[in-house]
Amino acid sequence: MSVDGGELERTLGFFEAMTLGGGTMIGAGIFILPGIAARNAGPASSISYAIAGFVALLAALSLSELATGMPIAGGSYHYVNRALGSLFGSVVGWGMWSGLMFASAFYMVGFGQYVVEPVPFLDGRGYIILLGLTGLALLTGVNYYGTEESSSLQNVMISAETLVIIVFVVLGVFFIVPTNLEPFAPSGAEGVMATTGIVFISFLGFEIIATVAGEIKNPSKIIPLSMILSVVLVTILYVLVMLVSTGVIPYDRLGDSPIPVADVATSYMGPIGAVSIVFAAIIAAISSSNSSVLAASRVIYAMGRDGVASEWLNVSHPRFYTPHRAILTTSALTAALILVGLRVDAIVSLLAEAASFSFLVAYSLVHVSLVVFRRADPDEYDPSFSLPSPLYPAVPILGVVLSVVVVSQMAPVIVTIGTGIIVVGVVWYAVYARSRVVGEGLLREALRGPPTEVYRVVVPVANPETQHGLLRLAAASARANADAGEPELVAVNVVHVEHESPLQNVEAERADHQRELLENAQAFADEMDVTLRTRALNASDAGAALLDVIEEEAADEVLLGWRAEASQDGGVASPTVATVLENAPCDVALVALRGGVGTPVGLVTPGRDATSVARRVAEFATVDGTVPTLLAVVPADGDEAVARRRAADRLAEAAAAAGLDPDEYNTEVVVDDDVEAGIRAALGEYQTVCVSRSAASESSDNPVAHVVAALTGTSKNVALVRGSGRPTPQSVD
Amino acid sequence: MPPIDELTILVPVDISVADPPGLDIIDHLEPLEVVLLGYFPVPDQAEPALIKDEYEDEAESRLVAIAEGRPDLTEVLVFTHDREATIDRVADQYGCDAVLAPGAVTDIGRVLVPIRGDVNLDRIISVTARLIEASDATVTLFHSVSADADESYGEFLLRGATERLEEFGIDEDRVDWELSEGGNPSQEIIDLGNEFDIVVLGESEPSLVDRIIGDVLSRIVDDLESPALIVRDTE
To answer: What ipTM is given for this predicted complex?
Structure first.
């Protein structure tokens, strides 16, 4: 069961994701823009659609990886904000929000055109604008009150709309007049590119799949598959629609029509064709506009969460639970954009191009963000779908280049408007967001390259009195392994709860104690200038919870504090400690600290822990900068010289396996038929003793176990060491 | 089919309303395993995470309040766009045999079990047997013969089901059956069901039409005032 309270439901499967992506994309763009596209680029405008589709595909690829890497609401905005910091986050957030408003206004004006034009007695721009505003008002109302589980009706509508387009294309192919397709590109390559900038808006919507990543089942498969497939299929469909349109009606005549696709359909399907296209266009306009309003409120939510926008917008309606303020604000601004159409002739293409501009800028920053994430490789970024080589880095590079090319061919007025929005984003960041945002971008990390390995020591802490000693020892251990990775400590505290329910409230007092303890650990780590992270847990089984953390953190070592109340068989007091000691998948040291470390001695006994004992004793020695001793005590068994040589060999072997140079340690070999007495005598001068856990507990009448039991009553520090069982890397030199 | 070892019942509760009705039925379900699912319906317009941010604490305390004094519940809290999908998912995850639609009830004394056909029948019978075995409740098995069907098939079904219940150790005095020729099963189940304390219904895979206009089962459940226990079809 999740520990962080409520879960979010994952309800979207492949089919749902495809309908969502495809349905949002196939919208007003394809019904309204073919006229404008044909006027600007002739039959070659189908190539504009193909290029725009390719640019969208590149963005979809990058977004797929990012969405599986961090499935959090907000889509493009979120990735850019996280990767490049809140300056770019503000720019993209504002860009996307305004882009969605441009798009929504565009859809609603298109909606007006498709309703007004076929009706003979309605005429004039006033009606178009009025209808657009009416449509918007209805959508706003529906969204304000909220809808639930309406997906089946929506799916039927979107399927019907798609079916109409497919019939249009399939039948239309037979009515193409080849001479209409000549000249193919009357305005040349430049015209084709310029048109690409206008028609790119037709592809808005695939991103919604990334935006709802957190609600998609089996995201690693379904997100990339549905994003890529929906973009590819829609691109093919658009290219065919454009070819049929320009092939059936000469492009210059098509360019004059505000409802081009309906005109084309009329010419070979008669009134039925016209009616079905008008029907499909209206559904498309409404569904696209609706999605834009929803997407906008999601972007605003994400911006509010990061402190980039005001949280005021994010309050949901107390009864309908809709983000009503965000919806109303978006709609009001969209209405203003629609009203501009009363004055401006080319409103449709302007709105389309402005929306395209915003999203091209956003997507190029998304590509950059992907590179940043890959290079900085932060902990929270763990994509289950990664672009394979050579798609990475080809996709992000090509994506940025193509976006820049398309933007550079846009009309000057659009570039001015777009730049204006970017400036608003920058100014907004400077005056509002900068002081509020939490968290920095990853640019610096990305420039530095992927982080070095980390050598991580996990330290469960419970007692404010003893935790400093433990942390000091842990820091020394981590630092002694600096060549294996950046030293890092993780302090963990577990508060015991009866029921491990997410709803269980820990008593305030114990929670406070936990926080104080961990804050104290943090402060001490800062004093020692070592990286420390803290983990606060509530669990009914502290041992299992600790093991989970050790596993999650991929710890290299665990350092446990011990009150040293070993029973005679060397068994350790608490079941929690025993669980960790027996099951941790890494080296574990159970340390009873009573004073300064001084010069530590490692009792090297035969068995698998010998290497770990040598490693620990060398690490502990760094606390006071001493040279550790490796000690072997063996019975003579007849030939003392042979016994001595064998023991010395064993020490050298253990030290070599632990990666110690011969000048980093001393050895001491004691030959005594009474091993226990020998050990006791040899330990005399040392302040800290490291012993293999297995040697200390093999059986109760084992001399090592006796010694350990005896040591618990002294002032010496005692460490029971257990190896991970993993092969220890051999020393290179 | 062997009887179900441990009958686990999912009780979904709309946790967005302050005072979820009819939950005293949970107390009548002991000693069965009960999974209490508090779902918070999120409209399509809202990001689930937004609603979670805002209402998580409130929803949690409501769920805790319901669970209080009922120690053996498993509580789950979910913020969802799709209630049905959540119920299905959670029921799968916790191995629930049946889903309870709450309603006003004071005691599970009389149980109505409408039977439509062979589908899912074994599970319906074993869940019913488990539900009442610890009590002295009575069961009425019910079948409505549709206009063009053979009446003897209905009788055959009901007799078979009665025998199965007896095999599960339910005394024959506690089981009777009723065969109707009214020809409108849904309405009959609703009318009859309201005279009972609880109605045990079998889940069936909805058809495409059902998905669009709402299926028969959910209409019955909506119109019933008594609680309904919907036995999941897990085969």
So the answer is: 0.75
